[in-house]
Design brief:
29% strand, 7-stranded mixed β-sheet, 8-stranded mixed β-sheet, 15 strands
């Protein structure tokens, strides 16, 4: 179903609710809520979600929250209660009729700390890093560009912000008999998933590609044929004010290599003395585990971390080697620890059970940083190689996951 058809469908439902008639919600709707007694009937009638994301979003006083695809506003009004008068609840919808209904419901409920925005979930009309929480109720599955939707959720979240949505997912694997696949597609259509839902693994992968960590998918309702309602949760990595941890991009190439070279110039970071070309750097690193810290005011990359496989043998699938570099002007600010913590969590989300590296014994700051996030020294490789004419020892370090493997 095209975007225009989806908007038209929900606009008709909004007009039905504004006329005081009950909408056909199928198996979904307000039945999943237990706190609607004081809400306007129009908000309850227009509820078309598959869960209650407000109940799992852990909203706190004073926070700002964005509801993607807010419909008649039920989740926005419930969120506004939880964040209190010093907080703010935004609702985003592509249907002007739904926005009219939502604003009417907010006025009837006497709720003033809300704002309803017209737009699509693939292009959110809010500034970067402007909300603490993103929620959604059975809407992301309607998007025909789910990667863009999740990237936008990451963009508008503040560092440390939370993602908690109800959505439709399917079991992993797209194989099966033609009849099994036909039944699955029919079940998705029956419950309103007109754009096709993500498999559990694909949902997790897209969240990780967007930059999220701590990804979890909890199935809640089985609709048959491998189709489920689910609660999907994740976090944007936390870091200090004025900074952001995000995935490394090709457009970061020049600044990443500059930070790399500054580290090499210290004589304590590596046996290498010159940073490689971007093509060589990129070819040797895993694309799903490359992150930078950027200054949110200037956009400058001030630190990066990346990983490579230690072997192509299947037995080593969860073992990687990493490098982390911080710009000399930004050291002793907690950046390295925040970056490594996010990297480790993303690695565990990706099934990594061992992260290893080598450090010169003289690089005491790097050794202390790694020990602070759970690395241990395995031993010393003596006189591994010559660096500026001097034979150097290397401390071999590793971190073993306590949750993976």
């Amino acid at each position: 179903m095209a975007h225009e058809e989806i908007v038209d469908r929900y606009s008709r439902l909004a007009r039905t609710a504004m006329a005081g008639e009950a909408a056909d919600r199928g198996c979904f709707g307000a039945a999943v809520y237990d706190d609607t007694a004081t809400l306007p009937e129009g908000a309850v009638q227009a509820s078309l979600g598959c869960g209650n994301p407000v109940a799992v979003a852990d909203l706190r006083e004073g926070e700002s929250v964005l509801d993607l695809g807010s419909g008649g506003g039920i989740d926005v009004l419930l969120s506004a209660r939880r964040v209190g008068p010093c907080g703010r609840a935004y609702g985003l919808d592509a249907s002007t009729d739904m926005l009219e209904l939502a604003r009417r419901n907010a006025e009837e409920a006497g709720v003033t700390n809300v704002e309803f925005l017209h737009g699509t979930i693939e292009h959110v009309p809010l500034p970067a890093r402007s909300v603490h929480v993103v929620i959604s109720n059975c809407v992301i599955n309607l998007s025909d560009d789910k990667a863009a939707t999740l990237a936008e959720a990451f963009r508008v979240l503040r560092p440390g912000g939370r993602f908690g949505v109800s959505d439709i997912v399917t079991d992993d694997g797209d194989t099966g008999t033609a009849e099994e696949l036909r039944r699955r597609a029919a079940t998705e259509r029956r419950i309103g998933c007109t754009a096709g839902s993500l498999t559990i693994t694909r949902y997790r992968d897209l969240l990780l590609e967007a930059g999220f960590v701590g990804v979890g998918v909890t199935l809640t309702t089985d609709h048959g044929d491998g189709v489920h309602s689910a609660i999907v949760k994740a976090r944007k990595p936390p870091i200090g004010p004025g900074l952001e941890i995000r995935p490394m991009r090709d457009t970061d190439a020049e600044q990443v290599l500059e930070v790399y070279q500054l580290g090499l110039d210290t004589g304590q970071a590596s046996f290498e003395t010159t940073a490689p070309s971007w093509e060589r750097f990129s070819a040797g690193k895993l694309h799903n585990l490359r992150y930078v810290v950027s200054d949110t005011e200037t956009g400058q990359v001030v630190a990066w971390v990346a990983a490579s496989r230690v072997s192509t043998r299947p037995v080593y699938a969860g073992v990687i080697e990493h490098s982390v570099y911080v710009h000399p002007g930004y050291r002793a600010c907690g950046i390295g620890r925040a970056l490594l913590t996010a990297f480790i969590e993303a690695g565990e989300d990706s099934g990594i059970w061992t992260v290893q590296s080598g450090i010169f014994p003289e690089n005491t700051a790097s050794l202390a940083l790694h020990e602070a996030v759970g690395f241990r020294v395995l031993g010393t490789r003596e006189r591994v190689g010559r660096h500026h004419g001097v034979w150097r020892d290397v401390l071999m370090i590793e971190r073993r996951s306590t949750t993976v493997g």
